[in-house]
Structure formats: structure tokens, C-alpha cells
Amino acid sequence: MNLNEKILAVIGLLSDGEFHSGEELGEVLGVTRAAVWKQVQALESLGVKLESVRGKGYRIEDGVDLLDQKAIHSKLTDSTKEKLSHLELVPELASTNQYLLDKLNTSGGLSSAHICMSEMQTAGRGRRGRTWQSPFAKNIYFSCVWHFENGVAGMEGLSLAVGVAIVRALEKIGLKKASLKWPNDILVEQAKLGGVLIEIAGDVAGDCDAVIGVGLNVSMPEEAMTEVDQPWVSLSQCVSRATDRNGIAAALINCLFEVMKEFERGGFAALKNEWESYCTHLGKGVSLQTPSESFEGRMLGVSESGSLRLEVNGEEKEFLGGEVSLRAR
Ligand code: BTN
Q1: Is-contact 143 97, C-beta < 8 A?
Q2: Which of 38, 58, 243, 300 is the most exposed place for a label (fewest CB within 10 A)?
Q3: Using alpha carbons only, what angle is made at residue 283 by residues 277 and 289, rounded to the nearest 5 degrees?
Q4: Which of 185, 176, 170 lies closest to 249 in space, CA to CA?
């Protein structure tokens, strides 16, 4: 459905989990009390469960934890605020990555450190052509533009660096056992909690922009994941403080900017050891599937450019990212 301003205002009103009368909702929607019921049916299609009780009105049991630009901004560090060029919150998008890519390609560019966050994505993208399930007001979906002057050469290891930023943020939120699967899956005990998708706009040999997309499951509903073929997990299953999505979003942005500062100074080499310390497969037997071949080996670590180092039949081999899939043996 199209998340229009009125529906959003109704959700905002009901987000406290308290009962609100039909009159109150009617005022927000600009319809009579009798017509409210039909309008609020729209919430059901967003997965928002509405309760109506005669004489009391309507409520969303347990409320909704909506994203709020001001709340996020208030939790950013001074150094993040200094760097941040723009923080956009768009209620519904096809994909936050696509939104920024479109703007970069059509509107004469965006400044570096421009962030776009959304409550839901109707065509959220994952790596390797996959769909990223993005139901309304449940998780975190955001993308950030980062400008590079020296083309994609300067982006080596960037997606791994972003993984480091996410693990740091999760630690701040209280999740101590997040790990990374090369190149940039965020895992908790082998179940996927989040992921990173980097797409590029501009001249790959010169002035260009990375659109860094981050998706993190905060309280993913079971029914949204029926067609997902890998184990997954939500932050709410791992830590008790997972209801404050604004706080989680701010922690992610703060850590992303902190890591980007380190990346700009020293490239991925400056973050390699930390990445390896979070790696779930380090020293372990793995199998790697490329579009044309498969390999069995032991993961030695990653190189300073972020490629995967595998020991295969006693020999060291390096693999770049792309269409490869890695799993434990
Ligand atoms: C993966 O497959 O692991 C990467 C998932 C990346 C999902 C995020 S959600 C925000 C941004 N917009 C998208 O369409 N995808 C990324």
C-alpha cells in the first residue's frame, strides 16, 4: 500500500499503544467517525495489528516504535553531526539504495555522508540478486552516500569495513556475540542478523560515489520470512534493549562514520585485524562456491584489500567478492 501522510499520522497517534477514539482518528484522517474503520483497514496490510473496542476506540497493542529524525539526530555524536550532510527519513521506498542511486544519477549529485532511511522497502535488495525483506516499522533499512575521488580502487575492502562498523554498533547496543561471515554478513550463531549492499554511481576510474546500504533485523516478523532459505535472527531475540530503533539507527550511523574516518585514513588495512577478530570462519574448514567452480579449504583470513584467503590443498588462494558463496564445511 501507499503509505500516505494521513495513515502515517494515524500510526503516529496510535504508536503509544493507548486507546484513541474514533473521533480523534477521524479528525486526523479527515473523515467521519463512521468512515474511520474502512480507512484503518489499511494498517492491516502493513502488518500493524489494530484492535477496536466499542466505547474505547482503537489501539495498536504494544504500540509501534516509529523512526524519528529528531530522536536519531539527538543521539548522534558531535563528530558524526559534523560529517553528516543530510539525514532523510522517507516512510516508504522501493529501496533506499535505489533512491540514492537515482538521485546521484539524475540530480547532479549528492554530498558525501547523505543518509536515507526508510520504514519499509517494497523492493529491498540483497546481495547476489536476492530480495531483502523489509516490512514496515520492524527493522532498520538505510543507505549512505560516500564520495571517493580515486574511483573504485579506493573502495577496496569497503564492504568489510562496514561490517566492522555494524559489529561495533551492536556491541554498543549490548550484543557481544555478533560475528562476520566474509564478505559482510552479520551473524549471530550462524543465523543472519543483517547485511551490507554497496552499489556504485559515477566514474569507476575517477570521481564516484559508493551507496552503502545496511539492513538489520530488529524484530522481523516470522511471516515476512517464509520464503527465506537461510537461518535468520532478529536483534530482539538477542538483546533486551532492541525496542529503541532510533537508538539502534544512531549507533549504526555513529559507528559507520567512525569506521569511514579510519578507512579514509588507512584503507581496509587499518581494520583488517578487527575484521578477522569478528570472523566466524577464521581457521575453520569452509567450502566456497564461485559461478564456475567450488573449493574446499581452510580460511586463513582476509588480505589488506579484503579478499578472502583460503588454504586449498596446501596452497594459499585469494578470492575477491562478487558472486561467491561461503559456508562452513
Ligand atoms: C545482503 O544481502 O546481505 C545485503 C542486504 C542489504 C539490505 C539493505 S536494506 C537498505 C539498503 N537498501 C536495499 O535495497 N538494500 C540495502
Answers
A1: yes
A2: 38
A3: 105
A4: 170
| Ligand 1 nearest-atom number relative to CA 127 | 2
Question: Cα separation of 262 and 187, whole Å?
Answer: 23
The catalytic residues are 127, 192, 327
23-59 as b/e: b if 16+ CB within 10 A? ebbbebbebeeeebeebbebbeebebebeeeeeebbb
Contact 198, 155 (CB under 8 A): yes
**Interval between CA 143 and ligand 1 midpoint (Å):** 8
Distance CA 200, CA 188 (A): 28
Strands 208-216 and 285-289: unpaired
Model pTM score: 0.94
Ligand 1: residue of 142, 180, 197 to mutate (most ligand atoms within 8 A of CB) is 197
Rounded distance between C-alpha atoms, residue 92 and residue 6, angstroms: 14
Give the integer Cα–Cα distance in Å for 158 and 242: 27
pLDDT number for residue 328: 77
pLDDT tens-digit readout, 10-50: 999 999 999 999 999 999 888 888 888 888 888 888 888 88
Q: Which residues of the chain have pLDDT under 70?
A: 1-2, 322-324
- Please give the pLDDT value at position 1: 44
By C-alpha distance, which of 196, 256, 211 is closest to 105?
211
Give yes or no for a contact between 23 and 33, defined as CB atoms under 8 angstroms apart: yes
Q: Across the beta sheet with 191-202, what order do the strands follow? A: 86-93, 114-121, 140-148, 208-216, 191-202, 185-188, 178-181
Q: How far is CA 295 from CA 75, 276, 290, 292, 324, in A?
A: 45, 21, 8, 10, 11
**Within 10 Å of residue 168's Cβ, how many Cβ atoms?**
19
Cβ atoms of 117 and 67 within 8 Å: the answer is yes
Residue 270 and residue 160: Cα distance in Å, rounded?
A: 12
